[in-house]
């Protein structure tokens, strides 16, 4: 600990065994006290009930939460469905599905720890590299809806049920254009539509004038990555937005809402 001064320590499930309890406490106390002396932000990741939620970052393996959590948490998962490491028969996820999970997790006060499987010589296999680059391209357009954001009054809306708990990230249905996730930052509210609507229109019900979730008057609505202005109208049923014909990216689509004035 003193030699490498790590900013993150990730524990698997076994440390919740009762025999480890005094060592968990001693380790956390030493680590956090040393971090204060280093002047560095640090974190401990844990599973199940190994630490109190106020003392470390709760981690869910290959799964998510179904609602916003008051304490910051984390999902750890891999680009492949069937392995964490390098094999020759990996069943890969799509970058679109990973981006959808990322947006869902962030809207619920979480973070995504994404694993790839390097080959024995340390090189990153081409499919892993392609997925990472595609996620990076999406973030280049839409990153402001992810980085430095906080949870909103509701995490989102839509029909698709996200299962709570570990080993569930391949068991849900695909997100639809009615599935929307919210993240505020810098005075703006980002509404990420998790699939492109076939009719080119999206209605954000949570922004309806009768719900009072967004009491401010809407001043501007834009689609990140698109240059042309959008046609929109707000009423009791929600904020209805007409999207452009061309998609600005290949995954989730971010509508940025800013208040008037």
Concise account of the structure shown:
The chain is 18% helix and 25% strand.
Named at the architecture level, the CATH assignment of the largest domain is Alpha-Beta Barrel
Gap from first CA to last CA: 50 Å
Q: Spell out the helices and strands N to C.
A: EHEEEHEHEEEEEEEE
Report the uncertain regions. Answer: none
Number of distinct helices: 3
Biggest sheet statistics:
5 strands, parallel
CATH C-level class of the largest domain: Alpha Beta
User: How much of the residues is beta strand, in percent?
Assistant: 15-25%
Instruction: Please tell me how large the radius of gyration is.
Output: 20 Å
In the CATH hierarchy, what is the superfamily of the largest domain? Answer: Glycosidases
| Class computed from helices, strands and strand pairing | alpha/beta
Could you tell me the number of beta strands? 13
Q: Which strands sit side by side, in order, in the main sheet?
A: 1-2-3-4-5
What is the CATH topology assignment of the largest domain? TIM Barrel
How many distinct domains?
A: 2
Averaging pLDDT over every residue, what do you get?
A: 96
